[in-house]
UniProtKB/TrEMBL annotation:
Transmembrane segments: none annotated. InterPro entries: DUF4209 (IPR025209), ERMARD (IPR039635). This is EMARD protein. PANTHER family: ENDOPLASMIC RETICULUM MEMBRANE-ASSOCIATED RNA DEGRADATION PROTEIN (PTHR31701:SF2). Residues 131-211 form the DUF4209 domain. It holds the Pfam family DUF4209.
Length: 667
């Protein structure tokens, strides 16, 4: 695909005018003392006087307000530039404590003294992220369920009560409204090049944040409220996020060459790419990812507009359509006009899976959302996460580059990255999560064989279970169902002599879960089925954990002779029952996995009684939920457990006999 990276701006003419020109039309020199008292307190009334309102409905007139505030912003910028760092710390540092990330705001002051335009944009992105998080904490003083979108947060009654509506209107001129400067979205969505965001707006937001701290202090003293900061999101299982090998300086140096030559990069955005790679080299991992994510969005938007033949949409649209081409739309199956999105065909499934995993899936890291909304501690951002984003970006630089870059793409440090990218499979789609659940559950059930056992000579015969024939019935049904399913299993993972063997089951589940399943754009019926299968798997795992815990506790009590007669009898019933529970739970896990590998093909091609099938799955779910209850330490209802198990096996056998499972319908 031939891309054109020659665009000189990604801002449409109206947006470019608002950001780059409107605030410079008034040439007045504004006296900083009008809005700043002698003890460095913001005079909010003087600031809010510059907000203009429409006569028709008294809503904010953003155009007039930006024009009026232009000289004020310039005055604030010059004021900050006149201060030494020590003066700034003395006069302002304490007013940023309410944000819970004072250091970030002090960094922004340093940025104002810097001539590098990329640093200014980076500082503004970090400032808006941290400010949004802090405002969310303030919101929770008065309300619950903090709004996800900044524009909704700034328009909330809760913040107006704390800071005043006029103050919130000032903020909305700079961030949070598509009718204003909208600095946060313009930067985080990659529409602004380094030189297109005036430094004075960054200075003004720094100034306003300090002023908000002053207002908040007054409010907290008056109301006796205590501001509580929400904990940051922490990436717990970093090993799950590792896709690519660790990047070294040689790889990063080649990446810098690729950036300058790849058609994936808009030339006007080149400084951002270089700054991102430099930040990674300097171990500034949050900075690297913050700089890079918007540029990935720009590059993907370039691919998107080229593939879908809508080059005009590379620019920000008019206000009511602002930022419609973002990650959500670019990764969707259909365009907003219902035509098929061509970008997935260009990127191909592995790259789409990676983007969905790291950006969109609810159980994934959702890196862009969490960074841009201030949910991650920027000072503790893990290298492992940054490594994946930078490495993936390098693979895109290679893929969308000219043939004369062959030597770079074939370099020994680049080829492993390409290989990892080409073989990527989703890890955070619900289907992938189900596979992980199944294997974790089987790992737990496998431990049952290692549970401590009561010495045989101490065990008395348990009356009831053997006499009513339920044990042999259960064994027979498990064997029959397993035999019916063996034709759908790999040959090396099953045995006619021992249908349910935990070692073979584990091997079977691993092999089935390793099969590639298309997760991209799973239809609704597939997702509904997967939801129920995940619930079943989760309940099975809970049963297993309860059995392990109870068996260990009861064994110790047995050996210490602290169990009463009835408790001893119940313990022996439990031991006998779990002999049958283990193969039943394994059978259910096998069914889940076999159904999973068939669900897509059946739901896409074969007409089948979907509602009837859901009813069957829900009955199995009901069984596992009851099993959780009966095997809990509080209940210990082992006779009822066997009765339940018998009933569910009858249902499974009936459905299997009639070949109504997905595994049957798929063949």
């Amino acid at each position: 695909m031939e891309l054109s990276g020659s665009a000189t701006t990604c801002l449409s003419q109206p947006v470019h005018y608002v950001i780059c020109k409107l605030g410079f039309e008034k040439k007045d020199t504004y006296d900083i003392n009008n809005i700043l008292s002698g003890n460095c307190e913001v005079r909010w009334q003087a600031v809010t006087e510059h907000v203009c309102y429409l006569e028709s409905d008294q809503s904010v007139d953003y155009i007039k307000s930006i024009r009026s505030l232009g000289p004020v912003c310039e005055s604030v910028n010059m004021h900050f530039k006149s201060l030494a760092k020590e003066q700034f710390l003395t006069q302002y540092a304490s007013w940023f404590h309410w944000t819970n990330c004072t250091e970030i705001f002090l960094e922004v002051f340093d940025v104002l003294q810097c001539t590098q335009t990329t640093e200014g944009a980076l500082g503004l992105m970090k400032l808006t992220s941290c400010l949004e998080r802090a405002l969310g904490d303030v919101y929770l003083l008065k309300g619950s369920d903090c709004p996800f979108l900044l524009r909704d947060l700034l328009a909330s009654e809760q913040l107006a009560v704390v800071f005043g509506q006029a103050v919130m209107n000032v903020l909305r001129i700079f961030i949070g409204s598509p009718y204003g400067l909208n600095l946060r979205n313009v930067l985080w969505h990659g529409f602004a090049s380094p030189h297109e965001i005036p430094t004075k707006y960054c200075a003004m937001l720094l100034f306003l944040t300090a002023g908000l701290g002053q207002l908040l202090q007054t409010y907290l003293l008056r109301t006796k409220c205590i501001l509580v900061h929400r904990p940051y999101v922490i990436f717990i299982s970093l090993e799950e996020l590792v896709v690519f090998p660790d990047l070294n300086n040689e790889t990063l140096s080649i990446a810098e060459e690729l950036v300058r030559l790849s058609s994936f990069v808009l030339k006007t955005m080149l400084p951002f790419w270089i700054a991102a790679l430099t930040a990674f080299k300097q171990n500034r991992y949050a900075d690297s990812v913050i700089l890079l994510l918007p540029q990935l969005e720009v590059g993907l938007r370039l691919l998107f507009t080229t593939a879908n033949k809508c080059p005009n949409r590379l620019l920000t649209a008019e206000v009511k359509f602002m930022f419609k081409i973002n990650y959500d739309l670019m990764l969707a199956k259909h365009l907003d006009n219902e035509e098929v999105n061509q970008l997935p065909l260009v990127l191909e499934e592995p790259a789409m899976d990676f983007l969905w995993d790291f950006l969109n899936h609810q159980e994934g890291p959702r890196i862009r959302d969490r960074l841009s909304h201030g949910e991650i501690n920027l000072e503790a951002f893990p290298r492992e996460v940054a490594n994946q984003i930078v490495a993936f970006a390098i693979t895109l630089l290679c893929r969308f580059s000219d043939e004369d870059m062959f030597s770079l793409k074939e370099h020994m440090v680049i080829k492993p990255l390409i290989s990892c990218a080409n073989s990527y499979q989703s890890r955070f789609h619900p289907i992938s999560q189900l596979r992980k659940q199944v294997l974790e559950c089987m790992k737990s059930i496998h431990l049952w064989s290692e549970l401590p056992a009561v010495p045989e000579e101490q065990v008395q015969t348990i009356k009831g279970l053997e006499e009513n024939g339920e044990a042999s019935t259960l064994t027979l049904m498990i064997s029959e169902i397993t035999t019916q399913l063996q034709q759908y299993m790999p040959q090396n993972c099953c045995s006619l002599d021992d249908p349910i063997n935990s070692v073979l089951t584990k091997r079977l589940l691993i092999e089935l879960c390793d099969r590639r399943i298309c997760t991209l754009y799973s239809p609704r019926p597939v997702l509904e089925i997967v939801v129920i299968l995940r619930k079943i798997s989760s309940q099975c795992h809970q049963v297993s954990e309860q059995v392990i815990a109870s068996a260990e506790v009861k064994y110790m009590q047995w050996m210490n002779k602290t169990l009463r007669s009835r408790q001893r009898h119940n313990y022996l019933r439990m031991l006998n029952s779990i002999k049958f529970l283990s193969p039943v739970l394994q059978l259910i896990l096998i069914l889940i996995t076999l159904e999973l590998v068939s669900v897509h093909s059946v739901c896409k091609k074969n007409p089948f009684d979907y509602q009837q099938y859901l009813k069957f799955l829900k009955s199995v779910l009901q069984y596992t939920e009851n099993l959780v209850t009966y095997t809990s330490p509080e209940k210990n209802k082992w006779d009822e457990t066997i009765e339940l198990t018998n009933k569910v096996l009858v249902k499974i056998k009936k459905v299997s006999d009639r070949k109504l499972m997905l595994i049957h319908l798929a063949t």
